[in-house]
From TrEMBL:
<keyword id="KW-0547">Nucleotide-binding</keyword>
<keyword id="KW-0067">ATP-binding</keyword>
<dbReference type="GO" id="GO:0005524">
    <property type="term" value="F:ATP binding"/>
</dbReference>
<keyword id="KW-0347">Helicase</keyword>
<keyword id="KW-0378">Hydrolase</keyword>
<dbReference type="Pfam" id="PF05872">
    <property type="entry name" value="HerA_C"/>
</dbReference>
<feature type="domain" description="Helicase HerA central">
    <location>
        <begin position="150"/>
        <end position="283"/>
    </location>
</feature>
<dbReference type="InterPro" id="IPR027417">
    <property type="entry name" value="P-loop_NTPase"/>
</dbReference>
<dbReference type="Pfam" id="PF01935">
    <property type="entry name" value="DUF87"/>
</dbReference>
<dbReference type="InterPro" id="IPR033186">
    <property type="entry name" value="HerA_C"/>
</dbReference>
<dbReference type="InterPro" id="IPR008571">
    <property type="entry name" value="HerA-like"/>
</dbReference>
<feature type="domain" description="Helicase HerA-like C-terminal">
    <location>
        <begin position="457"/>
        <end position="561"/>
    </location>
</feature>
<protein>
    <submittedName>
        <fullName>ATP-binding protein</fullName>
    </submittedName>
</protein>
<keyword id="KW-0413">Isomerase</keyword>
<keyword id="KW-0238">DNA-binding</keyword>
<dbReference type="InterPro" id="IPR002789">
    <property type="entry name" value="HerA_central"/>
</dbReference>
Length: 587
């Protein structure tokens, strides 16, 4: 960056009015507004959108021209011939974006603690000067020049001014790419992915349509894609019990307690299968005791067809196993045989205790059985559905090839930069897509809390984020459950090295809590009033004058704004080398 931004060859005018939000400039001559070339650089004098620098007493100021006009008395004399031959004296309105120290221009003061004085000189801002600002936005003084950068594009009004930004500034406080269909979101996502790959950092993208499949074939840089329901599956045991409840939607009065008891029973059975040796001795860290699995012994646990039979049997043996392995049984995972879940629910439809002997479970309760019929049908429909079997691996083992969590773990441990998780073949029924995305988010959230990304930060891209965030799953009794994994990531994972990058055409559908945690916005064309308001409310740095451009942005044009950017930047995103499959079909 040049140490002296105030080159007198770039002079264009004087400040003649100072207001709290903007200043006005007087051009001594209309000749100063014309374009000219200086040392090979084309400088455009008086154009709306151009950047200028203002020389104050103690500080310099960077501003942008918002408005140009001629004095009333000179407008009547204006003609094509007179503008070329006669001298006019235009005025302009300049938005002050930031201030900097006169003798150390790289030191930016984000707040406007002072304003230029009347009579201060105004100069055209050279591209080299402003490019240096872009690169150092969001970078602490001790790290200037060292963080990896991403070349996003160039200024809308000046193709020679490249917008190269620190990756830390873009993703360090989470990022959102918003805009209507056709605005250029997909190209921006591809551009960011390309930058991360070039910088040898790590990213995972949840791709709902297969749009980013062109990234699959970059040798030694991208991982083999995990295409759910085709060559990959998310084993149901990696779902939490909460996820299963969301998937199965039990009613709260009878079905939910019976489902929980059935899951507990099947977990106890899995404990028995994994811990009993040939003499039926349960092995635990603290003690050992016998449980005979036969019907002749009074103190027993009866196992029939892969389920535990309870009606009329003693409660104590079951509770002894439960108390010994309570941490595993009450864990969040779903480590049990889900194919037996509907049968076990039928076994759970009993009275809590036998009225004649409180040491035994009660007899069959037909009312409970009737109430659980709809839940049993939903479970059978889910488990026996071919498409869902491909997604959740109901008939597979957890360690089989293609398991999603195993694939994510291998990617994290590898030196590769990108993993694509594709939902293109996943059914929309049972809200499986939302539940799957939330489950992946929960898994990464757990890894982040264990500080797996402290030394190797990870950016999680979520395309069409409005499909997955702010979702409530309702059951037939209108009870709802929030899918909030990404909201938790946004609120707590910045310090752990897990960062979100959301791409959506409907920012109004993103929860306010998540939006408020987003530090960087790349906003393409937005027309809907609610979408514009959602961005305006979440961006403290974005002023109304800049947001007014949102409805008229062209394809690929965007406004960059955020916490680490002391001023909004209007730019044209450069086309990525690897383009997404986002073309609209032709009629």
């Amino acid at each position: 960056m040049s140490n002296n931004p105030f080159n007198h060859s770039h002079f264009i005018g004087y400040i003649n009015q100072v207001l709290p939000h903007y200043v006005k400039v007087h051009f001594p001559s209309s000749v100063l507004m014309k374009s000219f070339t200086f040392y090979g650089e084309e400088l455009k004098g008086g154009l709306v959108g151009n950047y200028v620098v203002i020389e104050g007493e103690n500080y310099g100021f960077l501003g942008k021209i918002l408005e140009l006009s001629l004095p009333e008395k000179e407008r009547l004399e204006l003609s094509e011939k007179s503008f070329s031959t006669k001298d006019f004296h235009p005025t302009g309105k300049i938005e002050i974006l930031l201030s900097f120290e006169l003798f150390h221009p790289t030191r930016i003061d984000k707040g406007l603690n002072s304003l230029p004085m009347i009579g201060s000189k105004v100069f055209i801002c050279s591209s080299e000067f402003i490019k240096g600002y872009f690169k150092n936005f969001g970078v602490k003084d001790d790290y200037v020049g060292t963080p990896p950068t991403i070349n996003l594009g160039h200024l809308t009004y000046d193709k020679s001014t490249v917008v190269e930004l620190s990756q830390q500034a873009l993703f360090g406080r989470h990022c959102a790419i918003v805009g209507t269909t056709g605005g250029g979101k997909s190209y921006t996502v591809s551009r960011l992915l390309q930058g991360i790959i070039e910088n040898k950092n790590k990213a995972i993208i949840i791709d709902p349509t297969g749009e980013y499949s062109n990234f699959d074939n970059i040798a030694d840089k991208t991982c083999k894609p995990l295409i759910l329901s085709r060559d990959s599956f998310f084993h149901y045991s990696n779902l939490t019990v909460t996820d299963l409840f969301v998937l199965l939607r039990p009613s709260g009065q009878v079905q939910a307690p019976k489902l929980m008891e059935a899951i507990k029973s099947l977990k106890v059975l899995r404990i028995l299968e994994n811990n009993i040796d040939g003499d039926f001795i349960i092995k635990s860290n603290d003690n050992t005791f016998s449980i005979k699995i036969t019907e002749e012994i009074r103190e027993d646990i009866i196992v029939r067809d892969g389920t535990i039979f309870k009606a009329g049997k003693l409660i104590r043996p079951f509770n002894r196993v439960y108390s010994t392995f309570i941490s595993q049984i009450e864990g969040l995972n779903s480590n049990f045989n889900i194919e037996k879940l509907s049968h076990q629910i039928a076994k759970e439809c009993i009275n809590d205790v036998d009225f004649n002997d409180h040491h035994k479970w009660g007899t069959q309760n037909n009312n409970h059985a009737t109430n659980c019929i709809s839940l049993i049908l939903r479970i059978n429909n889910l488990v026996n559905n071919t498409e869902f079997n491909k997604v959740f691996g109901f008939d597979k083992q957890k360690n089989d090839d293609g398991e999603l969590i195993d694939g994510i773990n291998k990617f994290i441990e590898s030196d590769l930069s990108l993993l694509r998780i594709s939902f293109e073949s996943v059914s929309f029924d049972f809200q499986a897509r939302e539940i799957l995305a939330n489950a992946v988010g929960k898994f990464l959230l757990d890894l982040a809390r264990k500080e797996k990304f402290k030394t190797k930060p990870l950016v999680l891209f979520i395309d069409e984020a409005h499909q997955y965030l702010n979702k409530k799953v309702k059951d037939e009794y209108f009870e709802s459950t929030d899918l909030s994994a990404f909201d938790s990531i946004a609120k707590e994972c910045r310090k752990y090295g897990l960062f979100l990058c959301l791409a959506t055409q409907m920012p109004r559908d993103i929860p306010n809590g998540t939006l408020s945690q987003i530090g960087t916005f790349i906003a393409h064309r937005l027309i809907n009033y609610q979408d514009k308001e959602a961005i305006a409310n979440a961006c403290s740095s974005a002023n109304r004058d800049t947001l007014a451009f949102l409805p008229v942005l062209g394809s690929g044009e965007a406004i960059l704004m955020g916490v680490d950017f002391p001023m909004p930047v209007m730019l044209k995103i450069e086309s990525p080398q690897i383009t997404p499959n986002s073309e609209t079909p032709l009629f």
